[in-house]
Amino acid sequence: AHNYHPIPIVFSKAKGSSVWDPEGKKYLDFLSAYSAINQGHCHPKIMKVLAEQAQMLTLSSRAFYNDKFPVFAERITSMFGYDMVLPMNTGAEGVETALKLARKWGYMKKSIPKNEALIVSCCGCFHGRTLAAISMSCDN
């Protein structure tokens, strides 16, 4: 299904900031998967722990506890000086959660009347492909 116009280049492998097409032509990846790959493609430390973890537990839903989340949560909250963390799978989920938190804060702390909170966004931004994220975007 068509949802936007991709750049007409096919990638078949990547390492660090470099990507290659099926014919072996090398490119520098300045897009970095919309910044999701800031550490570079196939980072050796990430690949190592990813492979190790996949051998033990590939995924557990948040319906259950796992032994890795408390370690992660402690590190993140200590690093940034907060007492809670709510990780998301995607940037769009992060944006949607931030919107919910901002609205809740406005209603609870600023006494905004129910259903009157407004979200302001700027044209030219990209926040993902969820309904709320698309509603905050424009085509130019």
- The backbone outline, from C-alpha atoms, is flat
Q: State the strand order across the main sheet.
A: 1-2-3
CATH topology of the largest domain: Aspartate Aminotransferase, domain 1
Let me know the largest β-sheet. Answer: 3 strands, antiparallel
Total count of domains: 3
| Helix fraction bin | 25-40%
Output the CATH class name of the largest domain.
Alpha Beta
Overall pLDDT: 91
Strand content: 5-15%
Rounded to the nearest angstrom, the distance between the terminal CA atoms is 21 Å
Q: Helix/strand/pairing class, anyone?
A: mainly alpha
Q: Can you count the beta strands?
A: 3
Q: Uncertain spans, ≥5 residues at pLDDT below 50? A: none
Rg from Cα: 19 Å
Please, what is the CATH homologous superfamily of the largest domain?
Aspartate Aminotransferase, domain 1
* CATH architecture assignment name of the largest domain: Alpha-Beta Complex
Total helix count?
5
Order of helices and strands: EEEHHHHH
What would you note in describing this structure?
There is one protein chain. The chain is mainly alpha-helical. The chain folds into 3 domains: 1-56, Alpha-Beta Complex (Aspartate Aminotransferase, domain 1); 60-87, no CATH class; 91-135, no CATH class. Helices cover 38% and strands 6% of the residues. It has a 3-stranded antiparallel sheet with strand order 1-2-3, with no helix packed on it. It is flat and about 60 Å long. The relative contact order is 0.08.
